[in-house]
Amino acid sequence: MKQLKLWMLAAILTFCGISVLTSCSNDDDDSNETPADAIDEQLRQMTLREKVGQMFYVRPECLDTTIHFNQSGGIDASTVKLTDIRLQAVNATMRAVNEDYPVGGIILYAHNIEDETQLAQFIQQIRALKGSPLLCIDEEGGRVARIGNNSNFNVKTYESMNSIGNTGNPANAYECGNTIGTYLKRYGFDIDFAPVADVNTNPENIVIGARAFSEDPAVAAPMVTNYLQGLKDAGITGCMKHFPGHGDTKADTHYGYASSLKTWAEMLNCEMITFNAGIKWGCQLIMTAHIAAPNVIGSDIPSTMSSVILKDKLRTELGYQNIIITDAMEMGAITQQYSNAEAAVGCIQAGVDIVLGPQNFVEAFDAVIAAVNNGTLTEERINQSVRRILKLKMMH
Do 249 and 165 fall within a single domain? Predict the structure, then answer.
């Protein structure tokens, strides 16, 4: 099993363009090297650009620089809409950009997916990109299901996670996660940005609502862990979202500022019950929320940009040691306050491992490289995140 794991890591890093030590696959060499040792050795062989690339998971459109961006770095909705572009194949521009900007993951949205034939071809093309990107999708079930809500795919669909929570039977959450995971694996995905671990305690919430299993954390927690287990048993890595909890908000972070006024003690008695359950289960990915939590942080900055939330609370107090990934950095709660450079560098300083969906990937990537070169970030800080990311890639 050890030799298999090392072989898998070697294959991953070969795709990244990194030479692999022959001793890692030499059956005659019965060394005591562990997977952690192998990862450290590969880190020593990777360039800074290869490392930084692993920390970005982006839309396919981020690699096509012929798409015009507005002054704030985002796609200008007044001139172009992603749903109109319908980027559904890797083109020459994307390949050329990718030569200088390797990427650790690609997330596909509904407009990137037409049918089974197109999806299979697109994923094959993405697999060939520099950085050996993992394939990601938001496939929660219910209203957020990029494949389930596409009539060209014949898969089982679900009313909502709240309807599953209302059954009171965690086995139903397992069945949902396993069913979704099974078809995602069949189509070629690696990561599902699900389940929603938020506790829907605010009836005025316009963004979570029925996406959450329950307004009761005691009901939601076993649903979350069973859904994660269902995905895992199908070969898909799940991701709990949105830390520290988007359930007690009124506004939508897609468009601007949103906040929870709870104290940390109040969160420990509600939202953290579900997140703690998932951490103890062994969740590999936790997605941040862009919500402000002023009574925890002491300011109105988004949780994604807060070391109090990510380092002090999630890492130190809750003991979470796996990957922290942002919610999409193109969302209004981030772009209305930060430039591409500030957002990318700032969230990594706060404790993030993966920057998801920056408005302008090239600009954000360059900013992180510059931050390392000028000492704002250390290369060891980059290494900390890349170790976690390469460990995850060993599982796929």
Answer: yes
pTM over 0.85: yes
Residue 289 pLDDT > 60: yes
Shared domain check, 92 and 158: yes
40 and 140 share one domain: no
The C-alpha angle with vertex 316 and arms to 313 and 320, in degrees rounded to 5, equals 90
Residues 8 and 88 in one domain: no
Answer yes or no: do 83 and 209 share one domain. Answer: yes
Residues spanned by the domain of 260: 53-393
| Confidence bin at 68 (pLDDT 50/70/90) | low
